């Protein structure tokens, strides 16, 4: 019975610490891959066992009580030590095994990672992947993410980073649209065309289209008749002769390969930033992380296949 109570308390501490760090049962549940009700019940059992109220609850938020703040600090230290023990044990193992939690933007996950994951399974049959896709920036430490793929170089002393590939943006349109309306020769010509723009899910802001003009990057936001918050949706609008839009090359490449889209203003295209892999310092020696980073080296070769498709289509 004592061991059972100890296990329940440990489960409650994990649920409590994650809810306190992320600010809600829903976020904690998503991070732990369980239901919000399971998180709530674990925290309630912990409160009953300790005889303390850990949260002040409202319909919209959780606020730590004074006792909750003290326990949260202690719980984080305890769980950090437990994680270090786990990582030390995992590092001693020769073969990757267990679950690896990976976070990535939706288009990178669907267009680049997902089609290749079966290769990882074939090489490491005991390794399973929990792939979490979305445009929001998750806190790897708080949410227990092992490896994240992000666009851009992000400074965080708790994380290790590796550049994977350039994040190249280019404008595209369907051959039929260009045959009817003509192709713009300069970014300034976009004001005379039907344009489709991208809206960031995280901020709600419209994408500023970057072009290299006279040796410097110029950003424009052309008037747009349609806006979407998913790159694939924009590509489909363009395929349907909806006008000109800007897209990461790894999203547009398959449409270009099928002849449904062609690059526009390719001479002005720029490498907007980089695609980067990030992982916590505590995962440095983790064999699962090492295996996935090796997999990323094959998925993101020095000459990326999607940029090769775009470059070939842009040649006169």
Automatic annotation (TrEMBL):
Name under which the protein is recorded: LysR family transcriptional regulator
Keyword Signal: no
Domain of life: Bacteria
Homology family: Belongs to the LysR transcriptional regulatory family.
Chain ranges of the HTH lysR-type domain: 8-65
PANTHER family assigned to the protein according to its UniProt record, in alphabetical order: HTH-TYPE TRANSCRIPTIONAL ACTIVATOR TTDR-RELATED (PTHR30537:SF5), HTH-TYPE TRANSCRIPTIONAL REGULATOR (PTHR30537)
Alphabetical UniProt keywords: DNA-binding, Transcription, Transcription regulation
A Pfam short name: HTH_1
GO molecular function: DNA binding; DNA-binding transcription factor activity
């Amino acid at each position: 019975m004592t061991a059972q109570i100890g296990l329940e308390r440990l489960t409650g501490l994990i649920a409590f610490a994650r809810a306190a760090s992320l600010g809600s049962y829903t976020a904690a549940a998503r991070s732990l891959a369980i239901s919000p009700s399971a998180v709530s019940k674990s925290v309630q059992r912990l409160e009953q066992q300790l005889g303390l109220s850990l949260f002040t609850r409202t319909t919209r938020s959780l606020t730590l009580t004074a006792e909750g703040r003290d326990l949260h600090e202690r719980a984080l230290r305890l769980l950090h030590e437990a994680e270090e023990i786990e990582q030390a044990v995992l590092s001693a193992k020769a073969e990757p095994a267990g679950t690896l939690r990976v976070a990535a933007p939706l288009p990178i996950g669907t267009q680049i990672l997902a089609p290749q994951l079966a290769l990882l399974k074939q090489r490491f049959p005991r390794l399973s992947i929990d792939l979490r896709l979305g445009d929001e920036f998750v806190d790897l430490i708080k949410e227990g993410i092992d490896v994240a793929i992000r666009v851009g170089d992000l400074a965080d002393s708790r994380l290790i980073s590796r550049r994977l590939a350039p994040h190249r943006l280019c404008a595209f349109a369907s051959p039929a649209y260009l045959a009817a309306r003509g192709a713009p020769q300069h970014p300034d010509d976009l004001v005379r065309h039907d344009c489709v723009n991208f809206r960031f899910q995280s901020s709600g802001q419209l994408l500023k289209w970057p072009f290299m003009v006279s040796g410097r990057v110029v950003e424009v936001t052309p008037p747009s008749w349609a806006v979407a918050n998913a790159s694939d949706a924009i590509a489909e609008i363009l395929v349907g002769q909806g006008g000109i839009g800007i897209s990461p090359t790894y999203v547009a490449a398959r449409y270009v390969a099928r002849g449904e889209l062609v690059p526009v203003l390719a001479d002005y295209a720029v490498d907007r930033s980089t695609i980067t892999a990030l992982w916590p310092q505590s995962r440095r020696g983790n064999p699962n992380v090492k295996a996935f980073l090796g997999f990323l080296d094959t998925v993101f070769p020095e000459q990326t296949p999607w940029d090769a498709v775009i470059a070939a289509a842009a040649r006169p």
